[in-house]
Structure formats: structure tokens, C-alpha cells
Amino acid sequence: MAKIRPFRGLRYTLEAGASATPVMAPPYDVVDAQGRAELVARSEHNAMRFILPEGEGDEKYARGASAFRSIVSEAMTRDEKPGVYVYHQTFEALGTTYTRKGLVALVELTRFGNGPVLAHERTLSGPKMDRLKLMRACEAHLELVFGMFSDPNKNWESAVDPVKGEPVLTADFDGVDHKLWKVDDAAAIETLQGVLADKSIYIADGHHRYETMCAFREELEGRGHPSAAYGMIYLSNLDDPGLVVLPTHRLVHGLANVDLDAVVAQAKPFFDVVTEALPANTEAMRSRMSEAGKERAAFGLTVPGSGQLTVLTLRADFDPAAAGLGDVAPALQHLDVALLHELVLERVLGITKEAQAAKTNLRYFKSYEKSIDVAQSGDDKTQLVCFMNATPVKDVMAVCDSGEVMPQKSTFFFPKIPNGLVFYDLAQDTEG
């Protein structure tokens, strides 16, 4: 049973009609040093100043907390009345304009496997400790986890749309139009809570941040904090036509040798194989991969500079047990990204799960354009480019429901959720 509740959000103080663009920032893990410098130069109050603080060792977390509290006092206001925050992102992808709709609320924090919040990705200890130290220093939930729930009839929208009024935040950031509304109508919130009460929540993005919130919950409970049990989350309807998933391609590097003919020879018992000219551009490559994966799992392999693409499509008579995958969860046995990792990257190329997690021999590109550039002309380290299709949401749900996880970077829900929309200040929320 998913329990959500409203909260008194901490938001940037914006004059009527003013854009929030100068203070917004992307997720911390997609920002390099140059990107951070460009963001903080936009405003002395930009969220990146505390989301990704500078400094060595644990000193940076104290600096982040100091920056956060300074910006809170100078440029933020805590809402007087608890509410939920309706959030729309309008964007272009694959030549089409979409609007993804969702809401920000507090959710009861339960560990994966012990409640309605379900994962599809394995987490790593390093990023979780980093985020926990920052959360602990700031005593606030600063970043949004992206969760999904099923609501085919869009009952959640019917509950909040009539009372959402005018936006409290607008921005044009990273090529996306952002709008945020505050809903504090008690009847609407009660209806919304009822809509979500029997739902599972599937994490789309932010597994590390969610587990960090759970760890922080346990720390706060030990201190007797009355609001420890809930954390801030963005929730979107997985039946929303604006929910867009894009592929993440794999680039192999650092191996002693990559022999594509040997890869194909070992894969042929399980895949139909076609070798053809490398598609010349994004549209052609996307179309070819979509065609290949229309009915069964498929992916494309190319040696940079070869001018050829080898397309592997799972055979209609594929037997997971015969392929040595009998112990793999059924939800993963016919999934393209799982098959690539199990049957090609690990079994043939020898890239272990540990090496995959550490990105020792893999890079991940979300862009078709960049992947095709490397495939066409090569670079100084890529030995094999693996072109993928996007993982359908139904397959993400099936893996979550199974209790298993996908390989890293299996999904890319586009666009990302930025920082700067609203924050949850636990230092001030002592009412429970």
C-alpha cells in the first residue's frame, strides 16, 4: 500500500512571471566540472552550489550545507500550508512533442522488497554514501526520485486539475518547458491519496537517492525525528502518453581483443544474424533497430570504422534453459539488454558483472548521434559499439515485480527531473 502525504515545500522565492531557469540544475551525476562552473555562474543561488558542493573529502558536505542554508535564508520560502506539487514537462523527442505529467509529494519510505516501492536496478555503495553525507549535512531532501504508478483512467489528474490554479514556477531549462503548481485543497489531496493507496510504485530513476532516503530515515528515527518516515518523490503515471523511454547504447573498450566473428559464432545458436551496411544517420539507425526488435529482442553490433552493422535478433525458438539462462528470472530471459550482457558481454567477451558495475570495459551513450559518430569513424579506445532499443515500460514493471534487477543503464526515461523545483526541509519539519 503506497502512502503519500502533502508537505510544506521549500521553494525559490520568485516574483510573479519570473523564470526559475537561472536557479535550476540537472541531476548531479550528469554534471562535470565545466558544467558545474557554467551553472553556478548563472546565479549565486543556483541549486548546483549545494547539490554538488566543491571541496575535498568530507569538507565538501559541510560546504554544501552552508551554501544550502545561506540560499534558503536569501532566496527561498517555505510554504505555509502543506500541499502536493503538480509538475508538467513539455519537450521534444523522436520528432514529436510530448508533455509528461506528474506530481511531487512525500512517500512512506520502505526498503526495496519490504513495501510497495520496487526497483529494477542494482545500486552501488559509493554514490549512496556520497548522497547520504550531503543529506545528513543539509538535513533535507534536496533531489527528486522518479517513481511511476499505473492509472489508466488518469484518476489522479481528475483529482488535482480542477484546483491547481496558476503555476508557482515556470522555466525553460535544458530545452524543456517546466511548470509547477501547488495543490493544497484537502479534499483533492484525500482523493489523490485514495487513488495511490493500492498502487505499486516503480522506480524509474534515482535508485541510489531512494535507498539513501531510506538509510537517512533510519538515522532520523534513531534520533526520534517525527517526520523521519517520509521522503520526497516525483510520481508519474506509467500509462501517460508523455512517458518516453530512450535507449542507452554500450561502447566496449579496454579488452585485449574483440573479435566480432567469434562473437557472432557463439551467438548464432540463439540469434538470427544479419550483416549489412551501417545506417548513415540517427533516423536510419533508429528505424533499423526498431524493425529488428518489433517482435523479439534485438541489438546491433559494429566494429568502429568497419562500415558494417551486425544485427542479432532472438530466434523464435529460443530456449533460455538451453542457453544456460534457466536460473535467470523469466522477466529477464527474453529482454534484449539482459541477453546482450549475459550472452555477449560476459560470456563471450569476458566482461564480468563486477567490471560492468565499475564501467571498467563499458561506456554508456544515450545519444544515437554520438554512438553513430564513433561507429563510423572510431576513436582512440572503442572496440565495439552495441546499439540498443529502448526497454518498454511493461518490461521494466515485470522485472520490478519479479524482485530481480536489470543490468546497469537499462532504461533512460527522458527527460530527467531537474533540481530546483521544490525541496523538503527536515530541519524545519518537526511537526510529524
Overall description:
By secondary structure, this protein is of the alpha+beta class. The protein folds into 2 domains: 4-244 and 414-425, no CATH class; 248-389, no CATH class. It has 14 helices and 21 strands. The chain has helices spanning 33-42, 48-51, 59-75, 125-138, 155-160, 186-196, 207-222, 260-267, 282-292, 330-333, 336-346, 353-357, 368-377, 393-402; strands spanning 4-5, 10-12, 76-78, 84-93, 96-108, 117-118, 140-141, 145-149, 169-173, 176-183, 201-205, 230-237, 244-246, 249-253, 271-277, 298-302, 308-314, 362-365, 382-387, 412-414, 424-425. The strands form 5 sheets. Strands 1, 4, 5, 6, 8, 9, 10, 11 and 12 form a 9-stranded mixed sheet that branches. A 6-stranded antiparallel sheet has the order 15-17-16-19-14-18, sandwiched between helices. The model has no long low-confidence stretch (mean pLDDT 94).
